[in-house]
Amino acid sequence: MTRKPSPILLIKRHFFVGFIGIIALLAGVRRLFPEVTHFSFFSEAAEQAAPLPQDTIALASARADSLLRRRRTSLRLLDKTGAPVKHPILSVPAFDTAFPDLNDVQLATARRIGISECADRAEAAQRIKDLVYIGDSPFYELKNLTHSTPYLVPRAATLLNEIGRSFLDSLASKGLPFHKLKVTSVLRTNEDIERLRRHNGNASEQSCHRFGTTFDISYNFYRRVQDPALPPQPETWGVQLKSVLAEVLDDQRRMGTCYVKYEVHQSCFHITAR
C-alpha cells in the first residue's frame, strides 16, 4: 500500500516547479530580448520618468500674481496718542547695485509674458483687447509719450498701479506731501523704436517695451498734488522723492514682482513685470 505524500510536501513540490518555470521564462525573455537587461535601457527609462526642470519664469509669474492680488495692509499714520507716525527715509545703499537687472534678463521674461511685438501703431491698435489703458490714474501721470503708447499688459498695469499706490502710502508714512509719479515710456512699436534710435543712441533695438510688459518711471520729475483750498505749495526736494521711490521699488523687486534697472542716461527706473 503506497503512502500519499503529505500536504506540506505537495506544496513544496508545487513551489519548486513554479520557481523553475519562472526561471525558464526569464531565461527565454533574456534570450529573445537581450536589450531588456542592458544598463542603458534602464538609464533611459529613468531619464524619461524623471520630472522636467520647472519653468522659472512661469513660477515667478504665478508668485507675482499672488502677491499683487493680496489684500493691502492698513496704513497707520497715528500712534495711540494721536500723534503722527513718521518713518525715516532709508533709500538704498547704491542705486546701480540695488537695481542691476540688465536688458537681457528683462527681455527673456518680457517675451514670455507679453504680447508679440507690433510693427506700427496701427497693428498695436488691433491688440487693444490684450492690453490695459493706463492714461488715467490717481497715482501717476504720463510725461510726453512721443515714442510710445499708453498701454500695458494687465500684469504690468497692475504692477504700475501698485508701485504708485505704495509710493503715496510711503510719502504719507514719512510725513511728506503727496506727489504723483511721472511715467515716461510704456508700449513701443518697432516703428517707434526706429524713430527713437535716430536721435537717441542709447535706445536698444531689442527693447522690452515692445511687449507691453515694461515701463519707465522718472526719478527726477514728480507732480505735487495740490489742495484746491490752499495756495499752490512748492515741490518737495527731488532727492527725497527719489529715495522714497527707490525704497518702494526695492521692496517690489525683493518680493519678486518685477525687474528694475537704474538708468543713468535716461534718468529713470526701467521696470519689467515678472
How is this fold's topology laid out?
Elements: H1 7-32, H2 39-49, H3 56-69, H4 95-98, H5 103-113, H6 121-125, E1 132-133, E2 140-142, E3 151-152, H7 154-173, E4 179-185, H8 190-197, E5 214-224, H9 238-255, E6 258-263, E7 268-273
Parallel strand pairs: 2-4
Antiparallel strand pairs: 1-3, 4-5, 5-7, 6-7
Helix pairs in contact: 7-9
Q: What's a concise summary of this model?
A:
With 274 residues, the protein is α+β, with helices and mostly antiparallel strands.
Question: Which characteristics define this entry?
Answer:
274 residues; alpha+beta; five-stranded mixed β-sheet; two-stranded antiparallel sheet; 7 strands; 14% strand
How would you characterize the overall build of this protein?
- Helix content is 43%, strand content 14%.
- The strands form 2 sheets. Strands 2-4-5-7-6 form a 5-stranded mixed β-sheet. The protein has a two-stranded antiparallel ribbon with strand order 1-3.
- Helix 7 packs across helix 9 (238-255).
- A hairpin with a 4-residue loop joins strand 6 and strand 7 (268-273).
- The chain is elongated and about 120 Å long.
- It has helices spanning 7-32, 39-49, 56-69, 95-98, 103-113, 121-125, 154-173, 190-197, 238-255, and strands spanning 132-133, 140-142, 151-152, 179-185, 214-224, 258-263, 268-273.
- By secondary structure, the protein is of the alpha+beta class.
- The termini are far apart.
- Mean pLDDT is 85; it is low at 38-52.
- It has a domain at 93-273.
